Batch of 2 targets.
Target 1
Amino acid sequence: MRRNIVAGNWKMNLKFSQADELISEIAQELSEYDLTDVDIILCPPFPYLELASDASESSDFFVGSQNVSSFEKGAYTGEISAKMLASLQVDYCIVGHSERRKYFLETNKDVAEKVNRLLEENITPIVCVGESLEEREQGEYFSVIKTQITEGLFHLHSDKIEQIIIAYEPVWAIGTGKTATAEQAQEIHSFIRGLIAEHYNKKIADNISILYGGSCNAENATELFAMPDVDGGLIGGASLKAQDFVTIANSF
Ligand code: PEP
């Protein structure tokens, strides 16, 4: 179902005590607002998922993981399975983040497998797509995004695609302070929705949440979220500051 969503990707940051503190601060900030029209998701590193899960029981946020194994179980040292995440009451998981594609050579095929594992456990994948600066400058961004969406998601049956959240994250905007303009974001979000309508149907496309990510912050979120096809944000740096993160969640 299409919802307004703000998800915080903490990446590989914070010690246990700092994570504990940030969760408490966010819970406290959230308690001061009525955010029933927004789903708020915290995606801390794996070791802090249980902490966040426990806190979520008495607060207004959900918990997401930043990654999952494409394998179901077994001899895959260092990997974390979707079943393990489900056993920690993790409801969402980021898949195909550009940092995973770049540093861990994650492919669209890996993304498709991870999406499958997550759906088997009723965990909602937040699937990231986006072009590099070079791809944008060479005018290849539509085809790059089309390939990422097609190869990562279009194996899914229509009743499964509706369970997916898509995040458009132009690589040149991630952690750079260089946000896409609201118009640039809208152009791609509308393109992605069009791809889904073409492959499935318009009703399904209209039902999917598409988030923007890339230097989204407390100052620019309102303008981005006002775009008709932007249903919220996947927030990196600004999600590590409780007040900024909650301000972003209040930007619809
Ligand atoms: C991200 O990594 O998902 C992200 C959007 O990062 P930032 O907000 O820091 O650009």
Target 2
Amino acid sequence: MTIEASAPAGELSEAQRMVREAAREFAEKRLKPTARKFDEEEKIPRELYQEAAELGFLAVMFPEEYGGLGLDYLAYVVAMEELARGNAAFQVGVTVHNSLVCSGIIKFGTAQQKEKYLRKAAKGEWIGAYSLSEQGSGTDAGSLKCRAAAQGDCYVLNGSKAWVTNAGFADFFLVFVSTAPELKNKGISALLVDKGAPGFSVGKKELKLGIKASDTRELIFNNCRVPKSQLLGKENEGFKIALTQLDNGRVSIAAQAVGIAQAAFEEAVAYAKQRRQFGKAIAEFQLTQAKLARMATDIDAARLLTYRAASLMSRGARCTKQASMAKLFASQASNRICFDALQIHGGNGFVREFPVERYFRDARITEIYEGTSEVQHLIIAREVLAEAR
Ligand code: CAA
């Protein structure tokens, strides 16, 4: 069953509607049917990313000259929502590649960096990963310790990074390192590090509660030499790049939360209509109806906030507050919706034969990565207070 997403479809352009249809078809045919298997195997075959690349999903916003679809941020977000509805563990890898890494190269990269990375990234030959967090610096990202000391025409990296999505199979990594520890967050730089760089290795795969099929690992740098030409943006100005990219990323995580919620909602509606107790379908009970009404309203509100932030991004406006609002609301709503979808399923919701069990686990991370809900509150409050000055 497909419930027509309550997206303001009439407000989407022809190109945005087309990319949504293509993403929906790919999700229905290739992602939904394999999601449980990949969740249990805790792995997604690289070929699936290749298939997504052939349809343009690894380069929705890249300029056409680099092999991208040349579409705007809203088109990207509607596509990412559909991919998450099919399999959030797959979608997160695609969004990290697109909106955390490659959009940074498009915005801050040199001509040589764009030439080196974007074409291959569009084709899926190379996949990107983004690495800001460390064991000791998650929310307080500006206190990171991984050191990059300038030496001749190279930086020498020492230290480690944590919880890096795509790390096991990524071909290039956008890594945030300290180039001037005494300057704290004003001494951070962004470096593009290639897989196989001498002194660079990836650690063991993390075993997670949800999005289990996504590949999350530590990065380890031991006297790893990276040419200075791999610096993205200016030396010591990397923290602003990290935060700019997170504004983008947070809107894609909001889209992920909406996609998971939509999938859980569809399952809940179908189940409530066919499950009979006390001689009638449980959808006829008002307590079920109240849950469904809340879920539907939450999804609409989350989607509208997400599309608003994406539309602002499409216009090139800074939208830190709107991105954080979308991420905060959509991730919390998604958790509420998955909780209720599981509750409507009763005992069947607690076993793996029914996908709501996976949606419930997958939704949890949307309140944690790319900034916890607590950080989103902090960012929104800062913005609101600054506006009131
Ligand atoms: N865009 C551009 N610049 C920004 C910005 C933004 N959104 N937000 C702040 N800045 C600028 C500030 O203006 C400031 O500039 P000046 O020094 O010129 O004044 C500079 O950046 C530093 O900003 P703050 O002083 O606000 O920095 P802070 O140290 O107080 O930290 C924070 C702010 C919001 C708490 C930030 O550390 C943060 O967002 N933390 C959460 C980290 C996070 O989201 N991690 C996710 C990891 S990635 C991930 O999860 C990927 C994955 O696997 C899927």
